[in-house]
Amino acid sequence: MGAAAVASSGTGLRCALNPALNQHKKGARLSLAAKSQQRCAVTCGRLLLRPNARVCTAASASASTVMDSGAWDSGVRRKRLAVFVSGGGSNFRSIHEAALGGKVNGDVVALVTDKPGCGGAEYARCNGMPVVVFPKSKSAPEGVSTDELLNVLRDLKVDFVLLAGYLKLIPGELVKAFPRSMLNIHPSLLPAFGGKGYYGLKVHKAVIASGARYSGPTVHFVDEQFDTGKTLAQRVVPVLANDTPEQLAARVLHEEHQVYVEAVAALCEDRIVWRDDGVPLIRSQTNPNAYT
Length: 292
Ligand code: GRF
Prior knowledge:
Layout: E1 5-7, E2 15-17, H1 19-26, E3 30-31, E4 57-58, E5 79-85, H2 90-101, E6 106-113, H3 119-126, E7 131-133, H4 146-155, E8 160-163, H5 172-177, E9 182-186, H6 201-210, E10 214-215, E11 218-221, E12 231-234, E13 237-238, H7 245-268, E14 272-274, E15 280-282
Parallel strand pairs: 5-6, 5-8, 6-7, 8-9
Antiparallel strand pairs: 1-2, 3-7, 4-14, 9-11, 10-13, 11-12, 14-15
The protein binds 5-O-phosphono-beta-D-ribofuranosylamine (GRF).
5-O-phosphono-beta-D-ribofuranosylamine (GRF) binds at residues 87-92, 164-165, 185-187, 217, 253, 256.
GO molecular function: phosphoribosylglycinamide formyltransferase activity
GO cellular component, one term: chloroplast
Keywords: Chloroplast, Plastid, Purine biosynthesis, Transferase, Transit peptide
């Protein structure tokens, strides 16, 4: 790809856009607002795992963090994130705010949506982020194909894809392009109440109807089916005797905003390690021998 064009704003946006991406923009498939609060500062680092580490595989393909004396190197490369949203985007907002506030070592560089008018897309436009519509549909003819989306994500040098209330199944080609680099959040304790048809209030209605006394969000890696990838993090909330689905949803959503930010923070600091049986663990930021 050729030299990058740079979109910038008074607040410091530095998102490289190459000519191919600009073509998407011209085709009204990707919108870039004039202002942004994003920073895309990039620094470099490397990862050294202890020789006797029981868990030994770095989470991201980059394997580029430092952990030589138990301390995390502040020079870990800042990651580039694409968030996929179909609705209001409150998880997207919490991740974006955490990135701006320094809790997440990354920058949201694109918002992908199948619903160009949704709250998450509006928020992205207001904050100067490129909005990519995917997939193409009757109601969204401006949408891009899987190949075009992959090109856009490559052009933006996206490290990680974060699904945050994106309702479409992710095509296998896209899953394969981001090995161990795509997360989703689901509002139940998977593997319970997950899979096709379990979304929104339907999840919470089913939880209440089952008599379960506990629920909570799950952050998991994405595979080619709905909600079946390996679990990375969970939080538990009580299901109260008189809960409505809306009340339970609000209690779970509050925890979603915490746990997704914590999981994404770990991902962006290369603190995910993979157990021999393929289960991902989060290494503590303060104690390199502790995992959750
Ligand atoms: C959340 O409940 C999330 O768990 C699910 O979709 C919902 C998205 O909510 N995957 P929001 O758009 O982030 O507010």
